[in-house]
Structure formats: C-alpha cells, structure tokens
C-alpha cells in the first residue's frame, strides 16, 4: 500500500526533530516549552474535565 505523501512528510519532520534530541522526550518537551514562551502567539490552556464512567447496560445480551 502506498504511503500518503502528507503523512510521509509529517513523519519525516517528526523523525528529524526526535533525532535532533537523540530521542530524549524530556529534552524535546523543554525545547517546546522554551519555544512556546518566546512565541508571541497566544496559547490556550484548557482545564481537564472528568467524565462519568458509564454503568454496564441493563439490557440482556443475545
């Protein structure tokens, strides 16, 4: 199956970024946070919302 060229490009950029930091996730997150702090763009932070766990259905199976 042929790989979508857009996905191939995204994966290439991701691999290049990860190799820049030798796969160190902590270093990547520190870089992202520093870049975000320097950026003049407004960041949106959303509060986590807990969802209710649904109860198993009372309907009989079968």
Helix coverage percent of residues?
A: 40-55%
| Ends apart, CA distance between termini | 38 Å
What is the CA-atom radius of gyration, in angstroms? Answer: 21 Å
Quick check: average pLDDT?
Answer: 88
| Uncertain stretches of 5 or more adjacent residues | none
Q: Got a strand count? A: 0
Structure annotation, total helices: 2
Topology order in helix (H) and strand (E) letters: HH
What does the largest sheet look like? none
How much of the sequence lies in strands comes to under 5%
Structural shape:
extended
Estimated structural class: mainly alpha
What does this protein look like?
The protein starts with a helix and ends in a 24-residue tail after the last helix. The chain is built from two helices and no strands. The mean pLDDT is 88. The chain has one domain. With 62 residues, the chain is mainly alpha-helical. The chain has helices at 5-20, 25-38.
Descriptive key words:
62 residues, mainly alpha, extended
Short summary:
The protein has 62 residues and is an all-alpha fold. It contains 2 helices and no strands. The protein starts with a helix and ends in a 24-residue tail after the last helix.
């Amino acid at each position: 199956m042929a790989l979508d060229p857009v996905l191939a490009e995204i994966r290439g950029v991701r691999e290049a970024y990860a190799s820049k930091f030798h796969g160190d996730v902590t270093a990547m997150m520190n870089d992202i946070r520093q870049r975000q702090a320097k950026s003049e763009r407004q960041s949106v932070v959303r509060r986590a919302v807990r969802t209710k766990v649904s109860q198993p259905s009372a309907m009989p199976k079968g």
